[in-house]
TrEMBL record, chains A, B:
Originating organism: Blautia faecis
Record bears the keyword Transcription regulation: yes
Protein name per Swiss-Prot or TrEMBL: LacI family transcriptional regulator
SUPFAM superfamilies xrefs: lambda repressor-like DNA-binding domains, Periplasmic binding protein-like I
UniProt KW keywords: DNA-binding, Transcription, Transcription regulation
Residue ranges annotated for the HTH lacI-type domain, each copy included: 4-58
Origin: domain of life: Bacteria
Pfam families found in the cross-reference section: LacI, Peripla_BP_3
Gene3D superfamilies in the cross-refs: 3.40.50.2300, lambda repressor-like DNA-binding domains (1.10.260.40)
Length: 343, 343
DNA sequence: TTGTAAGCGTTATCAT
DNA sequence: ATGATAACGCTTACAA
């Protein structure tokens, strides 16, 4: 079974290749009968146009790329779903590009641009320590979504990029503020040890302590080793177990993701203590599980669907050379649930 | 900032295009100095080869495609992670193709084959009601992984496809057997309303009831509407709430995914009842949350990592024309946890 | 309405 | 070791 080409279809139908091309691409100037015959033949012989050849020739490809830092993270679930739907509604294709922990998202994006002639790119996750000079080499418009702190300024006539995200530092600060307001003086903090997201969260944590006149104690900070799959329940569980065993004094645990918080809750429960009576637990990011866990978990609900929606809209605005808001910072919502209480 | 081509690089360096090509592709027959100079120029001008042109010319592309039914499902998380790593270790690239609920995975695979010249395909999810004649049109080897019931027989000299999965029907049957052995006579069943996976689970459920001499009652069956995002906690929660309100008599709920089971647990808890004292709950698929939920949830642990690993291995065996086991059915493990008890 | 032919940016086969 | 040049499969002027 060999790959059949447009030439052979043309021969089969006794027409020229351009006629076949016209049939495929719904050009108007073609005899309906000829077109039908060609389409039938295509179906019969299972001809599929070679997209490499198409892309080589075409200037546009109607493809949007989503570049995701660690796609296996359950956090992206809904967002992916929304992006997929929105892009399809606009009759575009979506290609997903995973970025492993040790890969550079900008380099991958640069590749994609050439390779797939994508019309636009959405970055999901990462984008904290990117090389701006490399990023500027991107010709197509892009949106940094649900992560990152900033985008490069525009230099050309049209805006080329935008940021749609939450402000991690401020959000985390507000959570710690809340926990302080509950009367906690010693808040254990489970964060990522990297210099990107983890650093932002930590800054928020520190700022809040300072504001609330509390002392910062390095012993309360648990830094998850950067490496693959940080945001797992298991990780939250294990480090909380160690924390509990260590004998360090604290009354509350704040984890920067809900999955980590779930692990923390279970670790507390398994140690024979109760949440929130013995230890309070708070998470962040607002995944479903925080709402349905028992006890339900106090969290910062990030507007993930909104971010996804707005990212797509903004990207298409960029593509269509409309004016856009360069930096959209969407606020999260602190949701008090059963896992925390006033002391 | 225009896209620079190989021709311009050649001109810039005062060499022919083939020399540049040799430099890029690490061909041996090139003067190291020339090569260095070319590489420097490439770096300076940020030249990225056009992959469409490359793929057009090349016969191989070193790309593996993973075609996933509903990528937003958290179930795929680890598997995606493993696949990504394994494929990278073998110096191949991975492209992810989402299949929406209303799309046909085989058609998309056919497209991918042409478009990206992929060397092999792994199907994740779906593949229950595929059109075998279309599937046979795939030229590259493929593995149906973690889903599906069967693969087409081989016709050529070399095997072209394989199946690596669990037997849903048998697994579900064993879970219901277990629940019966606990003394449950009326087991509510939350399943997917589709004719694929949902049907397999239901068959297992029915078979078990029959075997255990219990009556099948349609009122106990909750069929989730096919449509997007079936396996959400929220879905499990909502339908359990309705079930509880309906007044139908039952002592146990079995849901075909752990996320659904989590929702069921919370619904029971919110109704003022306890798990497992008032209602037992069992899930299936073995996601982390089942282990860490409170109460932890009895489930069927599918060997997801094993399936992913074995799928990659098998795919590369197919690619390298080695003999493979056509149908690898890996068994799940029933894990008794806190959410069920003997009556 | 249709066919012919010139690219698109590569790689590979020849010569040199 | 290097440079022309012919594909690769398609789209699109341009001609007919």
């Amino acid at each position: 079974m060999e790959q059949i080409t447009i030439k052979e279809v043309a021969k089969l139908c006794g027409v020229g290749v351009s006629t076949v091309s016209r049939a495929i691409n719904n050009h108007p100037d073609i005899n309906p009968e000829t077109k039908q015959k060609i389409l039938d033949t295509i179906r019969e012989y299972n001809y599929v146009p070679n997209n490499s050849a198409r892309n080589l020739k075409r200037t546009d490809s109607n493809t949007i790329a989503v570049v995701i830092k660690e796609i296996s993270n359950s956090y992206w679930g809904v967002m992916l779903h929304v992006l997929e739907r929105e892009v399809r509604d606009r009759k575009y294709c979506l290609v997903l590009q995973n970025v492993a922990d040790d890969e550079d998202e900008v380099e991958l994006a640069l590749q994609l641009e050439k390779e797939k002639k994508v019309k636009g790119i959405i970055f999901l996750g990462g984008m904290y320590n990117y090389d701006e000079s490399r990023l500027r080499m991107l010709i197509v418009p892009y949106v940094i979504s649900g992560s990152g702190k900033t985008v490069p300024e525009d230099t050309g006539t049209y805006p080329k990029s935008a940021l749609v995200t939450t402000d991690t530092e401020i959000e985390s600060q507000s959570m710690v503020d809340y926990l302080c307001s509950c009367g906690h003086k010693r808040i254990a903090f489970i964060t990522s040890g990297d210099e990107g997201l983890g650093r932002c969260h930590l800054n928020g944590y520190k700022r809040s302590l300072e504001k609330n006149g509390l002392e910062y104690d390095e012993k309360l900070i648990i830094r998850l080793k950067p490496g693959k799959r940080i945001y797992t329940i298991e990780n939250g569980y294990n480090c909380t177990c160690e924390l509990l065993k260590s004998g360090v004094d604290f009354s509350c645990i704040y984890a920067i993701s809900d999955t980590l918080a779930v692990g923390a809750c279970r670790a507390v429960i398994d140690s024979g203590k109760r949440v929130p009576e013995d230890y309070c637990v708070a998470g962040a990011d607002g995944q479903d599980i925080a709402e349905y866990y028992h006890p339900s978990i106090t969290t910062l609900k990030y507007p993930r669907v909104e971010i996804a929606l707005q990212s797509v809209r903004t990207l298409f605005d960029l593509i269509n050379r409309k004016k856009v808001v360069k930096r959209q910072i969407l606020g999260g919502t602190l949701i008090e649930r059963e896992s925390t209480r006033k002391l």
